[in-house]
Amino acid sequence: MSTLNSEKLIIAFHKLSNFLLSPDEDFNSVIRSAPNHNAWFTVEEVTRSLASLQEMLQLPALEKWFENISVTSSPKKVGLILAGNIPMVGFHDVLSVLATGNIALIKLSSSDSQLLPALLKKLVSFEPLLQDQIEYVERLTGFDAIIATGSNNTSRYFEYYFGKVPNIIRKNRNSVAVLDGRESVAEIAALGHDIFDYFGLGCRNVSKVYLPEGYEIKNFFEPLESFSPVINHFKYNNNYDYNKSIYLVNSVTHFDNGFLLVKQDEGLTSPLAVLFTETYTDLDALSQQLEQKEEQIQCVLTQTELKFSKGTLTLGQGQHPALWDYADHVDTIAFLNGLQTV
Asked: Where would one find coiled-coil regions in this protein (predicted)?
């Protein structure tokens, strides 16, 4: 069906990376109109997402990634149920299907229905043969495999309907940070990006920070001041006001710096505009605790020597995934390559 090979795909993906350095007017108009379709998708946050994709699609990274990719000549139809929590969050799944030579049956999220098609249209302009591998669908039928991203609730629905075909079904995950009190002002400021980028809506956003006993919270708040403009976004502000009122009415102990509420809580999933904290006394014991919650954790960010089986990232790197940083630590390429043996 297709004469695409690794070399052609690498060239096309890298051309897209170069394009993102200087988008044309048509694409810029899509970026400018994004907030009209989803208020969370401000021009700043869409631009942030595109910069992350541009960084991801650098030539050395593409060449390394393709070392483990088999471009099939017998494509399977892979249904993709995409999330819409942050701009173009489903792009990597689409890219993986295209890279392996398979056909992407794309069920767009209503929250992100404009940006991704515009991005893929540009990709097809660089390699027209990819057009045969992209199909947008309202209802998934005739698929050989499924990759579905949703909540813990929707995952049960997905497992019921798609459990009989090869699948990757993703659930809720959150990211955590671990501090030891020796972090510099610059390192805490970098952590601010892990907390506030995309308004904290992504699974790679830090929703909880583990602090050593006796940690002075002012050492945490002061470096984050540069992120205070987040409160000017009406949807974020609404969440901040709502959670603040709940805590005040119920006399819940918390800290408040005017744009972020910080509350001690053993949970991992904090409400929007809220950051959970928990204290620890021993790094090894904390490591064991995090391993027990591994299925709920996307990333662990830290400057410490904390051991975590899935690896850790330095503060500020949460929203800079590489091509091989697979969601939920499930190797999408290995899954797609394996479809040929099914």
From this structure: 276-303
Q: Which amino acid is at 159?
A: E
* 91: nearest Cα among 66, 69, 70, 112: 112
Which stretch of DSSP H or E encloses residue 22?
none
**What gap in Å lies between CA 101 and CA 244, rounded to an integer?**
49
Q: Which residue has the tokens 């090869």?
A: 166
Spatial CA neighbour of 74 closest among 289, 269, 339, 306: 339
What is the distance between the terminal CA atoms of the chain, rounded to a whole angstrom?
20
Q: Would you state the pLDDT for residue 1? A: 45
pLDDT digits over 60-92, tens only? 999 999 999 999 999 999 999 999 999 999 999
d(CA 76, CA 104): 9
Burial, 92: exposed, middle or buried (Cβ in 10 Å; 0-12, 13-18, 19+)?
Answer: middle
| DSSP conformation class of 103 | E
Structural domains in the chain, sorted by start: 6-171 (3.40.605.10), 174-302 (3.40.309.10)
Q: Which range is least confidently modeled, 44-53, 153-162, 164-173?
A: 153-162
**DSSP code for 318:** T
* Pure H helices in the chain: 6-21, 25-37, 43-56, 59-66, 91-99, 115-126, 152-162, 185-196, 218-221, 234-249, 283-292, 332-338
Owner of token pair 């295209």: 98
Task: Answer whether 167's CB lies under 8 Å from 289's CB.
Answer: no
Give the helix/strand (H/E) hosting 135: strand 134-136
| β-pair partners for 135 | 105
Q: What region does 88 belong to: left with phi over 0, alpha with psi -120 to 50, or beta?
A: left
Phi and psi dihedrals of 197, rounded to 5? Answer: -55, 140
Please give the backbone phi and psi of residue 17, each rounded to the nearest 5 degrees, phi first: -60, -45
Using an 8 Å Cβ cutoff, are 261 and 244 in contact? yes
* Side chain identity at residue 322, one-letter code: A
Parallel/antiparallel/unpaired status of strands 174-178 and 261-264:
unpaired
Q: Provide the token pair at 193.
A: 């990006």
